[in-house]
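Bench log, entry 3. Co-assembly request; chain sequences pasted below exactly as received.
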Amino acid sequence: MDKLILGRYIPGTSIIHRLDPRSKLLAMLIYIVVIFWANNMITNALLLFFSLFSIWLSGIKLGFFLRGVRPMIGIILFTTIFQLFFTGGGEVFFHFGFLQITRVGLNQAGIIFMRFVLIIFFSTLLTLTTTPLSLADAVESLLNPLKPLKVPAHEIGLMLSLSLRFVPTLMDDTIRIMNAQKARGVDFGEGNLIKKIKSIIPILIPLFASSFKRADALAIAMESRGYKGGDGRTKYRLLKWKSIDTFAILVILIIAMLLFILKKS
Amino acid sequence: MIEFKNITFRYVEGQESPTLDNVSFHVKRGEWLSIVGHNGSGKSTTVRLIDGLLEPETGEIWIDGEQLTEKNLWTIRHKIGMVFQNPDNQFVGATVEDDVAFSLENKGVSHEEMVSRVNEALELVGMIDFKTKEPARLSGGQKQRVAIAGALAMNPDILILDEATSMLDPEGRLELIDVMQKIREEHQMTVISITHDLDEVALSDRVIVMQGGKIESDSVPRELFAREESLIDLGLDIPFTTSVIKDLSEKLDFSAAYLTEKELEEELWGLLSKM
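Structure output for the full assembly:
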């Protein structure tokens, strides 16, 4: 689990850290769309420069982001190589049986590779500089305008923050159950595939049962503390939209415009 | 303040012996009431009925001169602070301060007031330094302190503790009970506490013993402690002073079956001077 960088938070006080989570989330959504527009050298170079600049602003070491890419490297290389060998068209550089490297293929492979890296870099930047809790707040408040369309914004926000709060608790539960079952002689990760799957059942069922119990106790505790839904509630956590947030969104929009002009149609 | 009139309650319809069988009692304003008894004697059910989390089969519950009905359920609930046994399952917020603020948010308290009340409550239970910590980083006892702070933050008229100090060490427990005694005196808060802890029982004004869904006895702690051996059958320990008195009773003549530590000390000095 330590290898997984995505979803971790690194405390800091950089400009990126201080941005409102809503602006960061919005910027990220726009940026992902923009990444798919990049289809030539100039646009990709521009995005790479912008991503590296944002990372530099956050004050987090580049090594962290490279480590974020590492678990995905298998998938990235797999798709890139497929693109490289199986896309036909244009000048042929290399030919062996049905495998061929062409100009178009090389181009495609490069673009796919860049897309992966840019998306991972930027989403890692978001999660490394934003606490999960404020991300949940941001989701709720961004969904709020959709309320007239019957989108349960408050409920989604509450569910998100409750699940985030219970992740470590359930992890502890899992480890406790695993150790208890080990003490009773269950072998995990031994034998063939079917045996392995079967050995998961003694973890899964108690885990489900205890989650149900927890959910029940939590619901009772929430009710006894006067929770009756999202209406008429005030908020302890207030999100503040500052001028720097508007500025960040503007920068992203400018990048989007540049890309739109520079991309090959 | 709280009036429990002939309450009968069953969890499952057709359950042979009801969980609560025609239970009646009364709690005065500002009183500290302990409820003791074995597992399954109906203690937790009783306090859940007071908070309206469960509905009685027959009988009436009156709180502050109002009968508890579906209509006034929420206004009454806002007067009651409740703390449960397992702190992990009642921690709603993602951090300590969020959790303490949760009931205030539900009540619709303004942001500025919320901030000051959260700080005040955390100060009271000695958790102010842990304000921004997540529950996963706290010990069981610390989580219970936060849960108690969450209940105290809403300035309840009635505080219900369902074995809420079970995970604290003896020192922390006494410290918190001390804090709650102080608040109780300042605000005329009524406290109902389910507990197995003798120190807590000794500090309360009155003890109700429950057994098999009925009230077995209703007395002051001193009377209860005088029952010696039968205390163990009720899910309690024998107080330390009582066992000292018992051990020495062959040689010495004590004036009562139960004495506080201080009284025992004086009694022993008195007996010594007579020798």
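The mean pLDDT of chain A is 85. Residues 43 and 259 of chain A are 6 Å apart (CA to CA).
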